[in-house]
Amino acid sequence: MARMKFICDAERCIECNGCATACKQEHEVPWGVNRRRLVTVNDGVPGERSISVACMHCTDAPCMAVCPVDCFYRTEDQVVLHDKDLCIGCGYCFYACPFGAPQFPQAGAFGLRGKMDKCTYCAGGPEENHSVEEFRKYGRNRLAEGKLPACAEMCSTKALLAGDAPVITTIYKTRVLTRGTGDEIWGWAMAYKVSAKASAHAGVKS
Amino acid sequence: MRALVAAAAALALASCGEIPQDAAKPYAGKDDTKAYAGDMFKGDKAKYEQTLAKRAEYQNEYVRTGDAKVK
Fold first, then answer.
1. pTM of the model
2. Does domain A4-164 have CATH number 3.30.70.20?
3. Which B residues in the span 44-63 are in contact with A, Cβ-Cβ below 8 Å?
């Protein structure tokens, strides 16, 4: 059984917003709704770090726990999805989510909220796969096409990884062990090849 | 008096107990179609998982370039 997760490598993310743009384009997400966004810590200061944040498809999802109409469910791949036909747009999930993932489209005047929208891990929703209704409500179902989420596949620096947890943690482990973990982790060589310190080790190409 | 204190203490300590968090959460919505149910995988879950795992490996550029210190 797969356990689909995201990992964002803060050492690699260059805050290009390619992931957010890919998500917007792939699912035709309306204006004002951001299923994925960039968060930068110490913006403008040398050593700033950015990470790409969306629904993390929590193993013990707080949104699922607080929903008063029980519209959340978990797929076989451990992706947390919801039924928009059941959602009442109450916003409890927004307050419960530590990542700010649930989004609410502005449905009318006086701050009237529409039904909740969030990252679907490109897995669609509770409609027939690839149907017009599924695309309209949840966006494209890439998993059913044998593809991973568009944000991760579009990431130019491969900072954002998506896939089965053991697979992507192995990729991340390889990356960390190759580039090192000390004060040498800085700059291009660190991110894409091996650092000067690491290359001093026998058998490692710089 | 002693019984009252004991009862109060028992009541106060009861709040320290942990409510089980792993109870199955009900889902009231529509059933979803399995991702591997379509034309591409024809219900073959193993093939579906294999395809996604292979696709995830493409994200590891160290394997492509042969620069990995640990494979």
1. 0.81
2. yes
3. 45, 48-49, 51-53, 55-57, 59-63
Enter the DSSP assignment of A106: B
Burial of A21 (0-12, 13-18, 19+ CB in 10 A): middle
Residues in B closer than 8 angstroms to A152, CB to CB, are 59
Give the C-alpha separation, B37 to B23, whole Å.
Answer: 28
B40 domain-assigned = yes
Model ipTM value: 0.80
pLDDT 10s digits, A117-166: 999 999 999 999 999 999 999 999 999 999 999 999 999 999 999 999 99
Instruction: Tell me the domain boundaries of chain A.
Output: 4-164
| Residue-range definition of the domain harbouring residue B63 | 35-71
The structure tokens listed for A198 are 């690491």
Nearest-angstrom CA–CA distance, A123 and A112: 28
Asked if the structure places residue B24 within a domain, the reply is no
